[in-house]
Write a structure and sequence with these properties.
Alpha-Beta Plaits; elongated; three-stranded antiparallel sheet; alpha+beta; 21% helix; 2 domains
């Protein structure tokens, strides 16, 4: 999967450092920074990097057929997996609210 990001850098040297650091990120296959266009193109490895599963303290994420699946019974909606996902595939969209059981009259 490839994704393009807008970036803010002041010099070509900083852009080169950003590109180099991005290429060292787990799950990143390649990265190219265009200093003049202020954009960075990142190609991610197939199957994901697994950062989300390693970040989850509740064992709520499993990867099956290269797809991350979340067990919402185990998930505590902490958002750590979303923060670590370099491709922003996992996002925290809402806060889960569990309803209290109805009281009998």
């Amino acid at each position: 999967m490839k994704k393009t990001y807008k970036i803010e850098v002041d010099c070509a040297n900083c852009a080169a450092k950003m590109e180099e650091a991005t290429k060292k990120t787990p799950g990143v296959k390649d990265a190219v920074v265009n200093f003049m266009a202020l954009k960075m193109k990142v190609e991610f490895e197939d199957g994901g990097c697994g950062l989300c599963t390693r970040q989850c303290h509740f064992e709520a994420i499993t990867v099956t057929n290269n797809i991350a699946q979340i067990d919402y019974d185990k998930c505590k909606s902490c958002g750590l997996c979303a923060q670590k996902c370099p491709a922003h595939i996992i996002t925290q969209r809402y806060e889960r609210v569990r309803k209290a059981p109805a009281k009998e009259a």
